[in-house]
Amino acid sequence: MRGRWLAGVAFASLVTLLAGSATVEADDQAVAPSPPKTEAVFAPPDPVAIPDTEDYNVIRSGYEMVVDTQNHARSYVGNALNCTNCHLDAGRRLGAAPFVGLPALFPEYRARNDRMNRLEDRLNDCFERSMNGRPLPQGSPEQVALVAYITWLSQGVSKEAALAWRGFPRIASTRRPDPGKGKALFAERCAACHAENGQGTATVPPLWGPRSYNLATGMARVSLAASFIKANMPLGQGGTLTDEEAYDLAAFINSQPRPDFAGKANDWPKGGRPADLPY
């Protein structure tokens, strides 16, 4: 029994779907406008505050999946990443694609697959691309737990607030990104954690190679990777790189080999492919 809280979540999702409420996403960029135009306060609850109710175990399981995907969803992961490697602080970090408020944005049209997507579809997109794995089966314990955790984080968050802080703050470069400069900067600012060969450690994710994200994920686009890097890297020192440095690093990292994606030919069936798409 999943309890009254989860039943309420399911009912609310059904009402939203029937009402036709949706936001439109032009592509997979999902980057917040800058600066956010909202009075909402970004204050997601701490996982230690998950209520001790009959739904506790489901919500807690979702949290554990995010921070330790390797062990809690191993069957669906094809690389060495965890969800929290991009969605920092278990999806609770502003400027790092927070989960907070996402349920209010779905269902949502995405040009990449030319259809309306549920939150579950969007999560599976991450598993297939960012995690280079396979989708969570509909109604599986893993899927239910992940949605429950994200919904719990998002209680009381409006659609407008969620849109304002969604994704990563957008940046732009005033010149063509230089992978050569990015390589030198990587050695100076990134290699201490991610290793000189970009393969990371037991606690730091690999940035390229067979154990990293595949070329069809949003992070494989230089503009999106640069936005993430500028806001969050080096870890704990976000905002210390210039926009150009972030772009140079992203260009270097994404020039390295990484897994292919078999379904890439089906992306953007009606056109509108982003200019920095690597395939």
End-to-end CA span: 45 Å
Helix content: 25-40%
Strand content: under 5%
Please give the count of helices: 11
| Number of DSSP E strands | 3
Helix and strand composition category: mainly alpha
Q: What CATH first level of the largest domain would be assigned?
A: Mainly Alpha
Low-confidence region ranges: 1-27
CATH topology of the largest domain: Cytochrome Bc1 Complex, Chain D, domain 2
Average of per-residue pLDDT values: 89
The overall number of domains is 2
Radius of gyration, in angstroms, nearest whole number: 18 Å
CATH architectural name of the largest domain: Orthogonal Bundle
- Biggest sheet strand order reads 1-2-3
User: What's the CATH H-level superfamily name of the largest domain?
Assistant: Cytochrome c-like domain
Question: What would you say about this model in short?
Answer:
This protein is mainly alpha-helical.
Describe what you observe in this structure:
- With 279 residues, this protein is mainly α.
- The protein folds into two domains: 163 residues, Cytochrome Bc1 Complex, Chain D, domain 2, CATH 1.10.760.10; 75 residues, Cytochrome c-like domain (Cytochrome Bc1 Complex, Chain D, domain 2).
- It is 37% helix and 3% strand.
- It is built from eleven helices and three strands.
- The protein is globular.
